[in-house]
Specification:
The protein is of the alpha/beta class. It has 9 helices and 12 strands. The protein has a 9-stranded mixed sheet with strand order 7-1-2-6-3-5-4-8-9, sandwiched between helices. It has a 3-stranded parallel sheet with strand order 10-12-11, with helices on one face. α1 packs across α5.
């Protein structure tokens, strides 16, 4: 990516426009976090409900501390996992850096430093926080390639940055550090065990309203999704996992590697959906470690949340 492309994206953000940004998790639809008109355009382009907060992406931890209040636990988590796929939900320092609409009217702010260098370069050139929810229409599988991001919301953007396929392929882990409690609000690429290795035991009292990606039906292709099954009827497609389970073409990981499965999940869902199957069937996947996040996305794609 050239300096001119970085400058063009930064200028678009300053003008209130939208920008497609690559991150290591999924492609994001970026806008000035402090500009309510720009944030409203994100909701409009995605068709996203406004009660769902957005994550403010920043270039480094110092910028994060200007918009959020960090305690010792939050700083330890940031030091351990930033830049990277961890979002911290913290008390908002002020409404100046991240507008009320982006925070869904809450007294907290969700913030992270993305691991993708191109995203950080654009944010640094812009100089402020950038909201960047997944660059798909609301409820659809998140885009993990530039082409999929452009297909979903490219019509709404002023600039778009191609950063190649997303290495992680799942949205960030969301952890709240509020009122002396640390809670996992959304599983992601940073596993529960990894968070606990830094922050200690997690509380069960986290407020899910403070996290994005929590609506009941989410990440869903047009075809119905059935999970934890290997029984496939004519006209259905099986997304396999592990040796000998389904066709290699449709496998999330022929070797049973959870990181490969995570990186392939949304892309495989999109590819299978383009075949117009009667249903997409996903083979059983372990639920520990990264499997917890994969299962979370699949159950929401299938509408099995409760």
């Amino acid at each position: 990516m050239t300096a001119a492309a970085i400058d063009a994206a930064a200028r678009a953000l300053k003008a209130g426009g939208l920008v497609i940004l690559p991150t290591e998790t999924v492609y994001g639809l970026g806008a000035d976090a402090a500009n309510p008109d720009a944030v409203a355009r994100v909701f409009e382009a995605k068709g996203r409900p406004r009660f769902n907060p957005l994550i403010a992406h920043v270039a480094d931890a110092a910028q994060a501390e200007r918009i959020a209040v960090f305690d010792l636990t939050a700083r330890r988590l940031a030091e351990a996992f930033w830049p990277g796929p961890l979002t911290l939900v913290l008390p908002a320092r002020s409404a100046a850096g991240v507008c009320d609409l982006a925070r869904a009217g809450l007294d907290s702010v969700a913030v992270r430093v993305p691991g993708h260098s191109k995203a950080r370069d654009v944010i640094a050139a812009f100089g402020g926080a950038v909201v960047a929810p997944s660059a798909n229409r609301s409820g659809r599988p998140s885009p993990t390639t530039f082409a999929d991001a452009m297909e979903e919301t490219g019509h709404a953007v002023a600039e778009a940055i191609d950063g190649g396929p997303c290495a992680v392929g799942l949205e960030s882990t969301v952890v709240s550090v509020m009122d002396g409690r640390t809670a996992l609000l959304r599983p992601g690429a940073v596993t529960r065990a990894e968070v606990e290795s830094v922050a200690g035991a997690l509380s069960d009292a986290g407020d899910g309203r403070r996290s994005p990606g929590r609506v009941a039906v989410h990440y869903a292709p047009d075809a119905p999704v059935r999970i934890e099954s290997r029984a496939v009827a004519p006209g259905e497609i099986l997304l396999g996992f592990g040796p000998g389970v389904g066709e290699t073409r449709w496998s999330l990981s022929p070797d049973g590697d959870l990181r490969e499965a995570a990186a392939n999940l949304f892309r495989r869902l999109r590819e299978a959906d383009r075949e117009r199957p009667l249903a997409i069937v996903v083979a059983p996947i372990p639920r520990e470690g990264l499997g917890e996040a994969i299962f979370d996305r699949l159950r929401r794609a299938a509408g099995h949340v409760g």
